Amino acid sequence: MIRVLADENMVGLDLLPKDEMDIHTVPGRTISKRDLDGVDVLWVRSVTQVSEALVDGSKLRFVGTATAGLEHIDQEALKKRGIGFSAAPGANANSVVEYVLAALAELQEPWERLEGGETLGIVGCGSVGRLFASVAQALGWNVKVHDPWLAQGNCSPDWASFAEILQCRVISLHCSLTREQPWPSYHLFDAPALAALNGSQWLINAARGSVIDNSALLEHLSGEDPVNCVLDVWEGEPAFNTALLASPALKFATAHIAGYSWDAKWQATRMLYSSLLDAQLLRTPLPEGLSSSESLAAVSGTGSDLARQLISQRYSIKEDDLLFRQLTSLGAQRAAGFDALRRTYRQRRELRGSELIQPRFIASRELSGICAALGISLREQRTELDATA
Ligand SMILES: NC(=O)c1ccc[n+]([C@@H]2O[C@H](COP(=O)([O-])OP(=O)(O)OC[C@H]3O[C@@H](n4cnc5c(N)ncnc54)[C@H](O)[C@@H]3O)[C@@H](O)[C@H]2O)c1
Ligand SMILES: O=C(O)[C@H](O)[C@H](O)COP(=O)(O)O
Fold first, then answer.
1. Where is the D-isomer specific 2-hydroxyacid dehydrogenase NAD-binding domain (predicted)?
2. Whose CA is nearest to atom 1 of ligand 2?
3. Complex confidence, ipTM
């Protein structure tokens, strides 16, 4: 029997086989050395700093993080001690892509501008950036990608310099957080970069808060023609600069939940379980994946309207924005409120893999294109007329 200590925000732990594992859960932010007594496997999320100090002297055999971002893990310290390590790369990529699409469709204008041939600039071409680029291309949008760490040609759409990205109508950030030279992403959007943007553009950050210098952003937002923003991540989480929320240019503000679909979290749990099978710490095979969610109801209209109707059947970014803005009334309890919003996050299913049942007379070519891009299977409903024909 192996003893697992897991962050209480992991999903689906109760669905894992229990014959070889004894799982205890704790709040991730407060995991300390004392909690690791007798623990073989530690499963964390982004809020636990897995430092040399934490793991030193422990009997840990394996650490897994149910996240894409890795900056909270001292991988060198694990390696030195022979502690195995794995993460969940890509598990939440589609969840983040659907979050960004929800923002664009809800705002309508950026979606329409992209539909009209203007350019989407993606910063970071890892699991999220690459998937977003391919979905955007399938929607017929022009895409430019900036990721100086990768060799050009490793990401299919047009490669771009940072200066070119700053010219794009919509800029979406999907880089990992790094201070490493020569291309640190830490404060990539500093005062000079922000000064190159204006109110005809949209800047979306669902990567890490510190990719944008939040103090410089506040100054920019109080200027004359600020860029429109969507922020899911904040410098100093779980604390955040509430003054940012006063700006009308901040269109949507959410509590680091872009990757929080149920599907993504369960996929991450499955990936961590699988890595214990690979490390031969477990033998019982993985349980089944999630069954697909209910079919989507018929939609009508065009462009952003169609997308909004589809997305809103699974996800409401407006609801997340409202909940987040309510945190400002909590005063000193805001940071705790931020964590609570994340801990109690609703069960949100992804659109990808869903089925849309649509009457034949309102199924259009445009709808087929959007469904194909979003991974929705479109089934035309037979009408009485079809049946009698
Ligand atoms: N908001 C959320 O809920 C959420 C969910 C998933 C991931 N994330 C964040 O988004 C990031 C991207 O996720 P991913 O799964 O694609 O990670 P990934 O590690 O697969 O890709 C990150 C990419 O960013 C690139 N990069 C690093 N520095 C850069 C720079 N200065 N300029 C341009 N590109 C740079 C890397 O080369 C890499 O290709 C994660 O690291 C994580 O921090 C947030
Ligand atoms: O890095 C990631 O995978 C995401 O930012 C993820 O959504 C973080 O969630 P957390 O670990 O903070 O619960």
1. 117-258
2. 69
3. 0.99
